[in-house]
Amino acid sequence: MPQRLRAALAVRQLILDGGLAGGERLSEIPLAERLGVSRTPLRLALAELQAEGLLEPAPGGGFAVAWFTLHEARDAIDLRGVLEGTAARLAAERLLDLRELDPVRACVEELDELVSSDAPAIEDFERYVELNERFHTMLVRLARSRPLESAVARVMALPFASPSAFVLPQAELPESHRILYVAHVQHRGILEAIEERQGARAEALAREHARIARHNLDLVLASESALARLPGGALIRGDVLR
Question: Any residues with CB less than 8 A from the CB of 48 and at least 6 apart, and which?
Fold first, then answer.
């Protein structure tokens, strides 16, 4: 693995795990020694993480870990909804053969089994995360748009913007199973709209589907234990507006 990529992955994980705090200025030499990489690939990795939004320019030069306001966290979720809504519409409009949807149908059927349980175990939530990410990845690919894929990937780089960001942190909350059920009903609705080549309906459903994450964000922020399990959750500051 190239040092630049290894450094980027390591710094990203440190940020998400709380090893680097919001607002903390990064010192290249100690960080390079900590990660076991040279300064040049580390500097490239830090520039990459700045482009993703996890780092920001520090006063006087260098990089610092970014803070995010609650508004920014919600905006990132909304932006994902806009992009995935566009993907769903394009998927419906560009579908050539219904057999292209076979993998999506299989994914939805597996999700059917998971959400049918009245008392899902933590392993069920972990499996839901895997299948949910697969569904969203296939949805974007069905759009047949490389620019759209790139835009989605950029938004997904923010820890709280991904479709599954809040599934595991909220697993112990009383509302968790109901939220998963509602989200999955929307999965099936998006699939059906694409099957019927109903672009406008598919887009509206996908955008509404993303708004569940905004509700989940509020639930997680209201629970200290759930917030502690949210990767990058400590970077969200509700009291800072900018």
Answer: 4, 8
Q: Write phi, then psi, for 122 (nearest 5 degrees).
A: -60, -30
Do 26 and 66 touch, CB atoms closer than 8 A? no
- At 209-231, the pLDDT tens digits run 999 999 899 888 888 888 888 88
Question: What are the tokens at 101?
Answer: 């949807």
Task: Encode 64-77: b = buried (16+ Cβ within 10 Å), e = exposed.
Answer: bbbbbebebbbbbb
Q: Which of 216, 93, 98 is nearest to 160 (CA)?
A: 216
Residue 116: both structure tokens together: 């049918």
Q: How far is CA 14 from CA 17, 18, 21, 34, 234, in A?
A: 5, 6, 9, 11, 12
Question: Does the pTM of the predicted model rise above 0.90?
Answer: no
